[in-house]
Design brief:
With 284 residues, this protein is an alpha+beta fold. Strand 9 and strand 10 form a beta hairpin. The longest helix has 14 residues.
Length: 284
Amino acid sequence: MGRQEIELPRMPASGPLYRRAVLGSLPGVGGGRRSGQLPDTALTVRGVTVDRTHLADYDRVCGFRLTDALPGTYPHVLGFPLALRLISAPDFPIPLAGVVHVGNRITVHRPVDAGESLDFTTYAENLRPHARGRQLDVVLVASVDGEEVWRGVSTYLGRERSAAGGQRKQGEWSPAPTGPTRWRVGPRVGRDYARVSGDHNPIHTSRLGARLLGYPRPIAHGMWSKARCLAALAPRLPAAYTVEVAFKLPVPLPSTVVFSTTPDGGLALNDARSGRPHLVGHVT
């Protein structure tokens, strides 16, 4: 069945969407049970332009060099409010509050210049069961003059108490890395990335918010971790590529991590003290 395309006049504001999601999660306010079906709609916004001051701020926060070519992760930030509008709808199958971003795949079809105007479309697909709840994919596509130039697929987990138990699987440890680089991740990373990305989930910006969701202190955004890794790889990336990562254990703020790569295109971000994995991925 085809999706109904709904075109919005502009990118939504993230703040009201987060407030609606928080209110919707409160007992007695959130309404009834959520739908067991994915929405059959695709949201579109056309003519999105790049604010070069914002781009420069994003580059600084994530470690990219200042250039006219957009970092591979930057279109995710540009289109994130549209995806947030989709995810925060009251009938979306999994609630935004407490959702876990478990994976992300980005395909850059060609370099995108900061002077180009982008059209964004987002939709959800592949709702499926998971040992701890349900998972789905949110697809975000950027086009220029009808040509797809960038595609991102974010996999989200909605945890459910009624889901089957079992030990949480963190995935296989990455192979022996080469050329490890140690990074200190400061306490402000969550707030700084929230400012440039529009992702103000309190689990990343507030000690109280993190504690309410089961973490002793705020954690870094998964997409900041991916962007920071991509920034380190930027000089070696081809014009077109796909980078896929799985988010493992969260990066607590502050902390020290080790970034490493393997000759076959593998990449990893591990805790500097224990070696436990925060992120594993591959570039092709």
